[in-house]
Amino acid sequence: MHSNFDLFADTEQPHRSEQIGEQSWVLRGFALSRIEQLLPALESVIERAPLRHMMTPGGFSMSVATSSCGALGWITDRSGYRYSAEDPISHQPWPQMPEVFRELAQAAAKQGGFSDFIPDSCLINRYVPGAKMSLHQDKDEHSYAAPIVSLSLGLPAMFLFGGFARSDKSQRISLLHGDMVIWGGVDRLRYHGILPIKYGRHPQLGEQRFNLTFRTAG
Ligand code: SIN
Ligand code: FE2
């Protein structure tokens, strides 16, 4: 794993970036300078499209509670995983992606070498202690040309970053409030997941973790 410090003109703070794959990076604390704008924007999205536990095609309720914003939202139910332009509960379009979300995702993607990232979907997952995300690939998007850009908020998590088969060995990467991960290009279809969240209380977000993943889905 490579580690280095970069100075970013747009955030006026040094960030530690760790390369975790040929085209994959962890940007430590990258979102912290925008946190006071990000949290109210997140709250407002969730007010309009409340978090809910979706059902997997196999009939299990997911341990994370999910919402979305942007033109497309990722959903799952008994008929499968897919993107939808409307919230299946309200039958309304998903809330617009807040400008602060889009700007942050684009700035992070740029640091990872993806300078023309245009996210049309932001999946919001809320984890309470014990919630987890099993190893999976993000592969419901129309094209894999764009990277996945992820933002962690609240309680810490252990992120598993694997290979191209579920059984490949995974790196274990601890993600903290404000950290971002980018994976794309040759790494776009790597398996990844989250170990069960440990009990704890985050000073700003309490007993929960949010993960936002930005994608170009359509
Ligand atoms: C995901 O793969 O959708 C979640 C990753 C995370 O929670 O950090
Ligand atoms: Fe994922």
Automatic annotation (TrEMBL):
Its transmembrane ranges are: 144-165
Q: Where does Fe cation bind?
A: H136, D138, H192
One GO BP on record is: oxidative RNA demethylation
Instruction: Specify which residues bind substrate according to the UniProt entry for this protein.
Output: W74, Y81, R82, Y83, D140, R166
Q: Which UniProt keywords apply?
A: Dioxygenase, Iron, Membrane, Metal-binding, Methyltransferase, Oxidoreductase, Transferase, Transmembrane, Transmembrane helix
Gene Ontology terms for molecular function: broad specificity oxidative DNA demethylase activity; ferrous iron binding; methyltransferase activity; oxidative RNA demethylase activity
Q: Name one GO cellular component term.
A: cytoplasm
Tell me which residues make up the Fe2OG dioxygenase domain: 118-218
The entry's free-text remark on the cofactor is: Binds 1 Fe(2+) ion per subunit.
* Binding-site residues, 2-oxoglutarate: N125, R126, Y127, R209, F210, N211, L212, T213, F214, R215
Cofactor dependence is on: Fe(2+)
- InterPro entries in the record: Alkb, AlkB-like, AlkB-like_sf, Oxoglu/Fe-dep_dioxygenase_dom
| Pfam families listed in its UniProt record | 2OG-FeII_Oxy_2
Q: Which PANTHER family match?
A: ALKYLATED DNA REPAIR PROTEIN ALKB-RELATED (PTHR16557), NUCLEIC ACID DIOXYGENASE ALKBH1 (PTHR16557:SF2)
NCBIfam families, sorted:
PRK15401.1
Protein name, per record: DNA oxidative demethylase AlkB
